[in-house]
Amino acid sequence: MKQQKRKPEQEIIYQIYPKSFQDTNHDGIGDLRGIINHLDDLRDLGITMIWLCPIYPSPMEDNGYDVADYKAIHPDFGTMEDMDRLIEEAGKRDISLMLDLVLNHTSSRHKWFEKAVQDPGSKEHGYYIFEKGKEEPNNLRSVFGGSVWEKVRGRNEYYFHSFGKGQPDLNWENPALRQEIYQIIEFWKRKGIKAFRMDAINFIKKPEKWRRMEADGPDGRCKCTKVVRNHPGLLDYLHEMNEKCFKSDGIVTVGETAGLPYDQLEEYIGKNGCFTMVFDFRHADLDIRSGDEWFSRAEWKTADLKKRLEVSCSHIQKYGPGTSFLENHDQPRVTTKYLRKDQDDPYGKKMLGMLQMGLRGVPFLFQGQELGMINFERTDVSELEDISSIDQFGRARECGYSAEEALHFVNLRSRDNARVPYPWNEEKYGGFSDADPWLACNEQAQKRRICFENQKNDPDSVLSFYKKLISLRKSSDWSDTLNAGRIRFEEGNEEVIAFTRQKEEKELLVLCSFADHPVKTLCRKGTLILDNYKETDMNVKVDEEGMIILRPFEAMMIETEKRRENDE
Ligand code: NOJ
Ligand code: CA
């Protein structure tokens, strides 16, 4: 089938964590063939694009975000022929691929880095950030803990790493390095890749001089994001990359840009912006105070979530399509995060789906979200696999929390929550593999019988509800309104997130209740498009005060009359 040319805002993107999607060769590790085998299921879900987490050769210290060769496939995942087939088979189903590009750093096992360390006079030495001296150049803490500086064995020289010490940062200052990067992008474009997710891309600009920072923890260090994230001058590189690689070929790009100030959005996603869209994490990180320390928990209410979404959407809609996401491979399951004690409530799960699909922005679903997967609570630190979870446990202990408290914080945020094997069915390893998987299956979800097979043919399942939501966005009278309509947040009960989406003469009102009990809220009369409760009158009526009663976790999408201009 010939691929249709879609506008970016018409995409429905599904994120696959290849290691955990489907194993086909009995080694307990997901692979590309496993994805190919499920393309029909993905087509039936209605998605238009797959964001594939890194599939490159890697020592897997950070599960592939430590790339050892950008132009090859990790043998655990298959071969380049498998990759070509995946691109082709997906294309036949009108699904395109978005590759994860990790360009802030490589693996320390990349041949460039190996050469750089062996030979300080080599050109590759100039591809990384080295500082000479007997002492660490400053006291910055890396994202995964410890110093950002690692001593080169046998020399008075340190290399810089924002993330793990197996992830040395690249030196974007060097034009020769930038050329290498553009060639990598060309390589994948020639293979038919039309979209890229730019990992940690706002870390690539470093300051001219390193200086000591005021400590923000008992380790005497200061988090490096204060210095190396969104550093002035960053945009010069991003614009150059866009000019050279993306712009003229209509490549879709999404920047992972945590902490991006809203007043810079135009440069990123405006008419002459360097990316198609960016991720804003403020709503996803509302349960932690600093955005990166999992033990600094924040209390939050529905109204706080609403406020964050409102601020984000209203800034982003001035410029570009934006993104709408609730989960990814770095986030816990949204059910546990937003529904808390009601994490397994089917109405709550569907309500979250309605929230995401109703919001303005290209929807990004993370594998398992469409089944309403929940977090997996570990009982011992030894069960953790993720580099960040292990570090956060140690940091919490260092900051005075008991082992029990530290594990609790990690359980709430651990990246392993999202990374567990996909539950296809109720067989031993959830149908993911017939061998012991690389990461244990989520037993708590298994006990609740959450799996694809149980939901596939059930019209009331969370999966079926996601399918309805996707088809509303993709191919209904409401597609334009949902894909490109303006968003405006509405007044109402403080446990309800309410907003309208409006384009030309059409207007939709979306109401999402986060309450586990009935609540009364403002509404407008209209025709029901979709509700997460079955028994609902299509004709939406309101009382004389303009109110309606929503049942626990009820979500409604209503076609309303367009507000008159002077009401706005
Ligand atoms: C962001 C990725 O999403 C995360 O998984 C990874 O650990 C870091 N960047 C480092 O590449
Ligand atoms: Ca395998």
CATH class descriptor name of the domain at 8-102 and 281-384 and 415-469: Alpha Beta
- The class by helix and strand makeup works out as alpha/beta
Attached small molecules: 1-deoxynojirimycin, calcium ion
Biggest sheet, spatial arrangement of strands: 11-10-8-3-2-1-13-12
CATH topology category name of the domain at 8-102 and 281-384 and 415-469 = TIM Barrel
Q: Taking all residues together, what is the mean pLDDT?
A: 96
For the record, the CATH architecture of the domain at 8-102 and 281-384 and 415-469 stands as Alpha-Beta Barrel
Please render the helix and strand layout as text.
Elements (H helix, E strand, L loop, with lengths): L12 E4 L15 H6 L1 H7 L3 E4 L27 H13 L3 E7 L8 H8 L11 E3 L7 E2 L7 E3 L5 E4 L14 H16 L4 E5 L22 E2 L1 H4 L5 H13 L5 E5 L8 H5 L7 E3 L22 H15 L6 E3 L8 H6 L6 H13 L3 E5 L20 H12 L4 H11 L2 H4 L23 H5 L4 H5 L5 H13 L4 H6 L1 E4 L6 E8 L2 E8 L5 E4 L3 E6 L7 E2 L6 E4 L4 E6 L8
Parallel strand pairs: 1-2, 1-13, 2-3, 3-8, 5-9, 8-10, 10-11, 12-13
Antiparallel strand pairs: 4-7, 6-7, 14-15, 15-16, 16-21, 17-20, 18-19, 18-21
Helix pairs in contact: 11-17, 12-13
